[in-house]
Amino acid sequence: MTIAATPDLTEAVTTRDPDVTTRRRKRLRPSTKKSNLLTVLLWLCALYFLLPLIWLFIASTKDNADLFSTFGFWFGHKFALWDNLENVFTVRGGIYLRWAANTVLYALVSALGASFLATMAGYAFAKYQFPGAKALFSILLGAIMIPLTALALPTYLMFNSFGLTNSPFAIIIPSLVSPFGVYLMRVYAADSIDDSLMEAARMDGAGEARIFFQVGLRLLGPGIVTVFLFTLVGTWNNYFLPLIMLNSSDLYPLTVGLAQQQAATAGGGGSQALFSTVITGSLVSVIPLIVAFLFLQRYWQSGLSTGGVKG
């Protein structure tokens, strides 16, 4: 009588063979060479983004003399960070605070509005079939390819005809339109919101608006945060649009205000040397963006709809 070997016994006998065990380990072992190469590339990318911030911090600790006479990536003879910070908030009657308030207003309102509009448009493109949807989405993709500088002059002429130049609306309204945000939300909504959830909500008597606000927005949270951060950073760092739209220094954001301050310093003509002050002001202007990212990254998650629909 023959006894058939059980799968467990066969596997146990096979794993005792040292050659088989070695071959299995080689198959499961990741490529060390590839891993090391990716690690080096990631460190190079990190240095590419961190080196300017490191230089900015070190330069903010120098006075005007050390700024031009010492090595850029090392501290000067005098640690002047606190003096520079004091100058940032006191020069010209503390106009830096006015520029900072303008920047916060422009960036927050634009980011909130652009995120909401992009979410609604992306949700509609992803979940509804309506006449002209493909044509509109193709136009949207084409709008992403157009550089913003090419639209600056037509935008200025249009806003000037309505009398909206030299006002906060000239910065906020153009920033509400985000073709890339609509594209991103369209792709995200297509994968994150299951059609079965929407059908179940309709069967329970929910209208389309209620489905969007109570179901869609909750599942699109990570995408909304992504669009919000992109728009916030884009509006915060926007320089060209405020430069052509605004004439009053009281309406300037930090980008234009610091650039005008630096230009006045470089031009001389009896102006106070404010190179260190401008650099320190630039450092201070970066801090809110870092704080916003660190605060919002916990919401930057995916897979929130996993388990929401049973198979």
TrEMBL record:
Keywords: Cell membrane, Membrane, Transmembrane, Transmembrane helix, Transport
GO cellular component: plasma membrane
Short name of one Pfam family: BPD_transp_1
InterPro entries associated with the record: MetI-like, MetI-like_sf
Compartments, record wording: Cell membrane
Family annotation (PROSITE patterns): ABC_TM1
Alphabetical list of Gene3D superfamilies matching this protein: MetI-like (1.10.3720.10)
Keyword Transmembrane helix: yes
Domain (ABC transmembrane type-1): residue spans on this chain: 100-296
Residues spanning the membrane: 35-58, 104-125, 137-157, 169-190, 211-236, 273-296
Membrane recorded as keyword: yes
GO BP terms: transmembrane transport
Chief localization: membrane
Superkingdom, natural source: Bacteria
Entry membrane topology: Multi-pass membrane protein
Family: Belongs to the binding-protein-dependent transport system permease family.
Protein name: Carbohydrate ABC transporter permease
Classification of source organism: Bacteria, Bacillati, Actinomycetota, Actinomycetes, Micrococcales
